[in-house]
Amino acid sequence: MKKHIPNFITLLNLSSGVIAIWIAMHNELKLAAIMVIVAAVFDFFDGFSARLLHVKTNIGKELDSLSDVVYFGVAPAIIVSQLYAKIYGLSIDNLGLNIMILCFPIIYVCCASLRLAKFNLDSEQTEHFKGLPTPAAAFVLISLPFFEMNKYTTIVLSGILLLLSVLMVSKLYLFSLKFQNLKLKDNLFRYILIIIGGILLSVFLLKAIPFIILMYILLSIIENQYSKKFNIKKI
C-alpha cells in the first residue's frame, strides 16, 4: 500500500496543474498562479514521502516528470498566453497575431519538456543542476500576473520567455538547495540565497520571485568561480 502513496501525491500535483490551466483559461490568472504553487508543494511532498517510505520506483520517476510538464511547463505558458490575450485582445480571427505572440509560450513549453527529459537521463545532476530548473522558470512566469502589464511591457515579457527557455536547456552550472551538511563554508551561497530570498518574499510577496531567481543565477556563477579559486568541493 505504501508504495502507492508517493504516486498518489504526484497525481495531486498533476490535478493541481490541470486546475491551474482551467482557471487560467477563465482569466483568473492570479488564482491560477496560486494553483501552480499548490502543485509545487505536492511536488515536494511526493519526493519527500518516497524517500521517507523508501519506495522509489521507475514508474514514480516517470510519472513525476510527466506531471512536471503540465504544471511547470504548460500551466505557466497558458498563464502567460492569457496575459498576452488580455493586453492585445486576441481572438481566433486574428490568426497572424496569435501565432506571432503564442510562439513564445510554445517555445517555453518545448524547452521545459526538453529540460525535464535531459534531467531524467543525466546522472550527474544529483548535487547540482545543468541549466535552470523548470520550477524556477515556472515561478518567474506565474509571478508576472501580479505586475502591471501593457503593450510596452510585452517586449520584456517575450524577452523573459526566451531567456528562460535558453537558460533551461543551457549547460549553465547552478547549485541545488540540497544541504549535505550545515557548514557555512560548504553552503555559504545557499544561506545567502535563502536569507535574502526570504526577506524579499516577506516584503514583496510573489513580485519578488524574478529577482530571487536572478540572484540565484548570479550567486551560482559566483559560487562556481569561488569553488574553483579555493578548490572547494561542490556539494
Pick out its properties.
235 residues, Four Helix Bundle (Hemerythrin (Met), subunit A), 8 helices
Straight-line distance between termini: 34 Å
* Residues in β-strands, percent: under 5%
Relevant CATH superfamily of the largest domain = CDP-alcohol phosphotransferase transmembrane (TM) domain
Uncertain residue ranges:
none
Number of domains: 2
Would you report the number of β strands?
Answer: 2
Structural class based on helices, strands and sheet pairing: mainly alpha
Q: Largest sheet at a glance?
A: 2 strands, antiparallel
Overall CATH class of the largest domain:
Mainly Alpha
Q: Spatial order of the strands in the main sheet?
A: 1-2
Helix run count = 8
Average of per-residue pLDDT values: 84
Indicate the percent of residues in helices: over 70%
Our Rg estimate from Cα atoms comes to 18 Å
The CATH topology assignment of the largest domain is Four Helix Bundle (Hemerythrin (Met), subunit A)
Oligomer: single chain
CATH architecture call of the largest domain: Up-down Bundle
Shape: globular
Elements, N to C (H/E)? HHHHEHHEHH
